[in-house]
Amino acid sequence: MMIYTIERKVIQMTFQEVIDRLNNGTNLLDLAKELNIERRSLENKLATRAIVYVKENEIWEYKGNNPTISLQTAVTSRTVTLDCDKAFVDSLKVDTPLKSKPKEHNVNMEYQLFLDYKSVSQLKLDIKKTILVNKLQFTSLKQYSELNGLKLNQFIATLIKAGLDHYQINLKEE
After folding, report:
1. Domain extent listing, the chain
2. Per-residue DSSP letters for the chain?
3. Residue closest to 14 by CA, chosen among 80, 82, 74
4. Rounded to the nearest 10 degrees, what angle do helices 39-48 and 83-92 cross at?
């Protein structure tokens, strides 16, 4: 029996170098492949270090308080939120389900939600499983479904499907 090992070339790159590469036209997915990490993992590492994409300027920017410390560590190492970045990173983690958005956007999203809700067959929801949510999430989901005349289980199934689609998680039917 022969055992083969695959040698992975590990590229060391600092967060500053990543920002520079992204701002010079390198695609996020290509950069993630080059670093031998998943795209989503790279996005999470950037967010953990208070690095965000600013759509107005079409550039990646560091929003923390100490670029000298935060941007000089290797991207491929274990990434944790540093104290100098914590205030900005925490501001991104607002736990407000069903946040209000501009009215025209809300109308389109509500209509799409309604269409997606209608596509969920009540007959196919035949397995009862328990999911855990916090009290605020449950209250918000229940209130929204009652206000809009939606069955809660069908509404939750719609939201789960939308989340799976958003994160490109493919479902396999048995």
Report:
1. 15-92, 103-166
2. -----PPPPPPP-BHHHHHHHHHTT--HHHHHHHTTS-HHHHHHHHHHTTEEEETTTTEEEE-SS-HHHHTTSBTTS-----HHHHHHHHHH----TT----HHHHHHHHHHHHHHHHHS-GGG----------HHHHHHHHHHHHHTT--HHHHHHHHHHHHHHHTT------
3. 74
4. 110
The model carries a pTM of 0.50
φ and ψ at 66, to 5 degrees? -145, 85
> What burial class does residue 95 get, using C-beta atoms within 10 Å of its C-beta: 0-12 exposed, 13-18 middle, 19+ buried?
exposed
Q: Which two tokens stand for residue 127?
A: 């397995």
Per-residue pLDDT band for 174 (boundaries 50, 70, 90) equals: low
Residue 160 has what pLDDT? 85
